[in-house]
Amino acid sequence: MLKILLYGSARERKTLEEALQKPLEENKISFSFRYLSNPQELMENYLYNRYYRLIVACLDGCTAYVIKGNGSKHDYYIAKGTMSFPPTSEEINEKLMRNPELAGFYSSGEYTVAHRGLTRKIPYEEIDYIRSDDKKTIMYLTNGDKEIISKNIGKVNDEINRRYFAKCCIGVIVNTRNIHKIHRSEKNSRVIEFKSGAKVLMTEGYFERFAKAYSMSVSRLADLKALDD
Fold this sequence. Notes:
With 229 residues, this protein is α+β, with helices and mostly antiparallel strands. Helices cover 24% and strands 39% of the residues. 27% of the residues are buried.
């Protein structure tokens, strides 16, 4: 569950809560709010409290936010910035909902694999990429395992949630939420590296389409310099 601290006056907190609730529910994020109006208490008890991964506050007529990570203290603040007050749905979607540090709170779904009378439900967050293998499909998981699916990749593509997956070349679909970074390979290709360390190739013909699909989900393409010169 995503623990969110809302800071401001009672009226300001109510406005922030109303603005955040719909996008959180639309993205199927389990969440809870805590409310605070004391600035000293915010600094002393909550700013460095990892229990609250997201702080949203009304400050000087703007909406300020801090997204906190799980790493060491030197990279404690993963993201921070401002939005208008009240924040628009576009701002919330771009700056909060699409931030990869919050991706772990998404209930993105699962894919059911059936094999010899047995079924296995695989959460999307455990899938790195999916590759075509003739009339079958191979699913590569974050732990290094593979699942062989007795369907062609076109059928699998129709069954998965395309808010989380994008095609990067012929016969390969990647989970955008598990991407760590994207490297230049040569003039006409890029290498997508996942958090698990696995890598796949993205070919030139898919650069633009991949960027568009990626921006609709995690939206960290500019930071990753996927299309750098």
